[in-house]
Design goal:
332 residues, mainly alpha, two-stranded antiparallel sheet, 11 helices, transferase
Amino acid sequence: MALSRALRCCQRIFSWIPVSIISSVVLWSYYAYVFELCFVTLSNDLERVGYLLIFHVCFIMFCWTYWKAIFTPPSSPSKKFHLSYSDKESYEMEERPDAQKQILAEIARKLPICTRAQSGAIRFCDRCQVIKPDRCHHCSVCETCVLKMDHHCPWVNNCVGFSNYKFFLLFLSYSMIYCVFVASTVFQYFLKFWVGDLPNGPAKFHVLFLLFVALMFFVSLMFLFGYHCWLVAKNRSTLEAFSAPVFQNGPDRNGFNVGLSRNLQQVFGEDKKLWFIPVFTSQGDGHYFPLRTLRESENPLLANEGKWMEDGGSDEESADENGPSVIIRTES
């Protein structure tokens, strides 16, 4: 027991190493740009003020989005998706797999669930004892089920999912802007140091490394950001891009693709003025999502969260009618 606790403690410590590396590079870049470039190298006061003003705007937005991506906890399924004590007891006492699947299917009738496991059964997490909502997956690092899980990112030491996917995208975009601004403003002084127009000194090496580091990070971020832009446009997560979600009629990579405009709104919200600010504006609560070939008006469970019932006579009959009638029509 003590050994396992020590191993978990070491794992938590080591998991912060990538974040520490990024933070150290960013702090060094701040010192190199502000002090070595602006205060030591630049001689034009107007140019210095302009550079410092724009740099600090980029730096603040980068730090803000990075902070939000790191410290926004991943959202987990609500209590409605957890098994009740009686359901859990029935599930655990039943030894036949087919009977267990039937128990989960009966419970899932009252929940807005459209996706299935590869076998066609209701997706269930044995470790969290929860019926998985659509697009929810278990993260072995965070040790919890994460709503609309995209991936676990070591560079933010957090699981990227429904609650912080917008922050992660903004972090990537402001990182690129930060790198582009640093590289573009440093380039002319890089050339001057290189050809010997400026005197040698500590500032020379800081300016030279600033350009190399900014370009290196920009190239790597550009491919990652472009990939996630494609995912947002298609309304897919990284996991769904590798393994298509399975519906009642089979796998469909475009099952959640409801058009570019609505796909963007699901992540960034309807108010475009808030798209580039790291505040949560994503639509919904992460438990259900509109489907490409099924309008919300055709499925009351998806249109109204109030339709979710724990139990009840007439309500249960309504849920039974709505549950099996969900049909996913795929296009060839």
